Amino acid sequence: MKIAFIGLGNMGYPMAVNLVNASFPVIGYDLSAIQVQNFTNEGGEVAETPADAVRDADAVISMLPNGDIVRNLYSGADGLFAKVKPGTLIVDSSTIDMQTARDMATEAQERELMFIDAPVSGGTAGAAAGTLTFMVGGTTDALERARPVLDVMGLNIFHAGDAGNGQLAKMCNNMLLAVHMAGTAEALALGAANGLKPEVLSKIMKQSSGDNWSLQKYNPVPGVMDGVPASNNYEGGFMVNLMLKDLGLALEAATASQQTTPLGALARNLFALHAGSGQGGKDFSSIYKMFDNS
Ligand code: NAD
């Protein structure tokens, strides 16, 4: 299966490299010359334009920042839906709004293409290790066709339902992630401000009822855990601006369904304040700095 991979950023690059290492022929495309160079260094082929990347592809995977970019890439007379071979499988793993995912699935079906929304969880470490969780919206047929490719990049593949449901699962998950990351940072900073070392408090809470993924895998305090963004000046990882986007998606869904999400709304405000103080390009665990008085 020849694969075109569009978007070789923090997530897309390691995902595409895993496909290359699994001997899939992959042609990558990204707007950033640095990302393109990195991919070439890992043995990937690259194209000058998205249309060149998809010309001979059997499957297209995209890993892009937001729904507008995804819509512009695929839709309309100049979009990739009009450029791919008949029957091509399209997997959008970007985190975007449900409506765009559903519109893309409808347009793809009208053009006799297969489209799934397949956003992921697991962060850049999961992308590098090939252990991502995929949350898939779309038909069973399309998912089964994508499975051999998803299996290379992920460990858990869930069929969440019809088109758009992968995105719905993802925004619910990330709203919860934002809440427990902010709460974890708040608790660790409270301990530190009163003389309890963050590494000691982390160890205690990991074995207690406050345990959660942020504590286990992504400690927000610099120096407590190796290999996480907090121990690398909050570089790499998952940007505050992207978390803010995801919280916006969750709140849009809440508004549309007249659902109350008070903790999600508070988390969105905290991350918006944090982004507004110049931290938008840092990893989202840098929310710890908002609480840290040391
Ligand atoms: P990123 O900003 O590191 O990467 C996005 C890449 O897309 C960049 O390299 C950029 O140059 C490229 N790009 C932008 N517009 C383009 C276009 N029109 N054509 C081609 N390339 C284009 O972001 P990321 O962290 O890799 O996130 C990508 C998606 O994955 C987002 O939707 C994000 O919400 C989601 N996500 C991220 C993480 C994480 O931990 N970073 C985890 C799960 C999901």
From TrEMBL:
State whether keyword Oxidoreductase applies. Answer: yes
Pathway annotation: Amino-acid degradation; L-valine degradation
| One function term, GO molecular function aspect | 3-hydroxyisobutyrate dehydrogenase activity
Q: Quickly give the catalysed reaction.
A: 3-hydroxy-2-methylpropanoate + NAD(+) = 2-methyl-3-oxopropanoate + NADH + H(+)
This protein's superkingdom? Bacteria
Domain 3-hydroxyisobutyrate dehydrogenase-like NAD-binding, residue spans: 164-290
- Name all 6-phosphogluconate dehydrogenase NADP-binding domain ranges: 2-161
Q: Does the keyword NAD apply?
A: yes
- Spell out the family assignment given in the record's similarity comment: Belongs to the HIBADH-related family.
This one is known as 3-hydroxyisobutyrate dehydrogenase
Which species? Parendozoicomonas callyspongiae
